[in-house]
Amino acid sequence: MNVQQVKQAAPRFDTAYHQRLNLQAWGSDNLYPQHLSRIAAASGTAELCLSRFCKFIEGNGFMDGLAGKELNEQGDTADDILHLIAQDVARYSGFALHVNYNLLCEVTEIHHVPFEHCRLEECDDAGHVQHIITHPDWIGKKTKNGQRIAVDEQHVEHFNVFNPNHEAIREQIMMAGGIDCYNGQILWCSMAGRNIYPTPIYDAVISDMSTEEGLGNIKNRNARNNFLTSAMLITKRGVPKFDQDGNDISSPTITPEDLAAFQGDERVGKLLLVELENDEDKPEVVPFTANNYDKDFTATDASVIERIYAQFHQELFYAIRIGKLGFSGDVMADAYTYYAGEVTIEQRFISRGLSQVLAVWHEPILRNADTTILKIQYAGMTNV
Predict the structure, then answer these.
(1) How many CA atoms, within 13 angstroms, populate the side-chain half-sphere of residue 278?
(2) Which of 17, 22, 90, 342 is positioned for an S-S bond with 54, CB 3.0–4.6 A?
(3) pLDDT tier for residue 310 given thresholds of 50, 70 and 90
(4) What confidence category does residue 362 fall into, taking pLDDT thresholds of 50, 70 and 90?
(5) Which of 380, 230, 211 is nearest to 306 (CA)?
(6) Contact 56, 219 (CB under 8 A)
(7) What is residue 116's DSSP assignment?
């Protein structure tokens, strides 16, 4: 069998042209990162692995000369911004920074922009993206002052892509009507390359994440909604009741409401009373046996969790979790050292992006600042 005969998988997402807003849609419905977030949020293992991924990317922050430096009027320090960037890089393999300039074309402020809020404008004839288009909620359900923030031309905002060239900045300021009207630029960085929507490393296991959510639902329903009566007492029904026309108006033996009252973990041990039609039948107690399907899914549950850990390159933490390697300070220190090396590509990616902005910072002292992210080290007990 050659490669052409193998059944082909569908693309992870489509990049289509959104004519009304003149942008490149991130997914066929332009909601690829939003879908990813919901799938990951429903998987406990995925959220745990993502949290660890973020933690190691952020490391111990920047060097002392940069870490506590305030980079905007709100007082956000370089480490504060790094914390937000690390989450975007872990979840979406990219990040975005908004920069403001002064009249000398020097950067005066840096703000984090949630990566899932950003979309690329359609390329021009030369193949360049000129603007980054942002919206606070591309799903269109968020509200402001009681009004829904629709996804339309009125509620999206266009920012020029980051370009520290003085002539380009002056031209943009003039076109905006002056420095007071200028909304700055956005540095949009993708680990997939320039002007390409990225695919996070966990995209390949989104089916496993969804499977884990389904397994969790089964366990929940089995524990909370299973029929858990302890016994059923069968007795005589008594004399039936009839109306004036001779119709039987007796209440049914068991109604759906009766069954609901005997379901769930909080109703265990109740007794269900059932009346019989035939007077000759004697009272009888019939025990109920509840069905528990948890064991049927044990192998699936374990394999799904293992695959999610493996996709994040966190096999060592998984081995510690299941007791394969035991637990000690040395084992955890080795695991930390190993995984700190796994995120160096992401850390260098962040450092390169921030260095581009600081190179034109209005204070010369930061223009050559060391943007190296310090590696995290094991310093005690942690959740596995």
Answers:
(1) 4
(2) 90
(3) very high
(4) very high
(5) 211
(6) no
(7) G
